[in-house]
Design a protein that fits this description.
Blueprint (H helix, E strand, L loop, with lengths): L1 E5 L8 H14 L4 E5 L5 H7 L4 H5 E3 L5 H10 L5 E5 L5 H9 L3 E6 L3 H21 L5 E6 L7 H11 L4 E2 L7 H8 L4 H4 L4 H19 L1
Parallel strand pairs: 1-4, 1-5, 2-3, 2-4, 5-6, 6-7
Helix pairs in contact: 1-10, 4-5, 5-6
The structure holds adenosine-5'-triphosphate and magnesium ion (MG).
Length: 215
């Protein structure tokens, strides 16, 4: 079983969007997936409850993002191929607990200076957890998120992230369809199969699988 934590100190950078759509694409690749909603806002639970799609089948709520519950939920997830954990913003103890059990930490970052500054904190926390675990896990990857094409900030994001010394995965563009899918309780792949947005999440899932298979 592999565990992926989606982590970031800043709110609204696309953590839950990435966790939900990534989990759905992993299911589409034939994996059994448990999606833990460890954010007390429970965005994934709310998203799943708006429809009857894949999220409704794989999301499980972690009450109050309680760090101890994350560990026990992961331990209980025997027989599942991949656990994806969505974490809250500004709650380092929950993020730390998720990264303490994760093989891979995905750190989304939006195209703004403030997002990049907050990302440094998330990276520092990830590296701290790795030090505590005396391990190369979690592997850390940045995910450009809510990228606005044809803007200077959009173009600069990936090079800026690369300069921070960790590998950068393919970005997720800001698209109306991503938010519209949420409105229907669906993932982008369910709402608009084969769309450009769907292809980005498919590519993210493939990249994630390549990392997990190398581990
Ligand atoms: N690629 C995208 N295109 C369009 N809208 C997006 C995209 N990614 C996220 N959003 C929208 O941006 C808002 C914040 O996204 P999301 O909830 O995924 O962020 P978050 O980091 O999980 O936030 P929080 O820190 O509050 O948990 C939501 O309204 C979501 O629908
Ligand atoms: Mg969220």
């Amino acid at each position: 079983m592999d565990v992926i934590a989606v982590v970031g100190r800043k709110g609204g950078i696309g953590k839950s969007t990435i966790a939900g759509n990534l989990a759905a694409e992993l299911v589409a690749m034939g994996k059994s997936v448990l999606l833990l909603d460890a954010d007390p806002q429970h965005s994934l639970v709310a998203w799943a409850s708006l429809g009857d799609g894949v999220l409704a089948r794989i999301v499980r709520k972690i009450e109050d993002g309680e760090p101890d519950y994350i560990l026990s939920a992961v331990k209980r997830a025997k027989g599942v191929d991949i656990v994806v954990i969505d974490t809250p913003p500004g709650a380092p103890e929950t993020s730390r607990a998720a990264m303490a059990v994760a093989d891979l930490a995905l750190l989304p970052c939006g195209p703004s200076r403030l997002d990049l500054l907050a990302l440094k904190d998330a990276l520092a926390l990830a590296l701290k957890v790795r030090g505590e675990r005396k391990s190369k896990r979690p592997r850390v990857r940045f995910v450009p998120s809510k990228v606005v094409p044809n803007t200077v900030l959009g173009r600069m994001l990936t090079p800026e992230l690369e300069s921070m010394g960790k590998k950068v995965l393919g970005g997720i563009t800001q698209r109306v369809g991503v938010a519209e899918a949420v409105d229907r309780g669906l993932t982008v792949g369910e709402f608009a199969q084969g769309s450009a947005g769907h292809l980005e999440f498919q590519e993210l899932a493939r990249a994630v699988m390549r990392i997990l298979e190398k581990n």
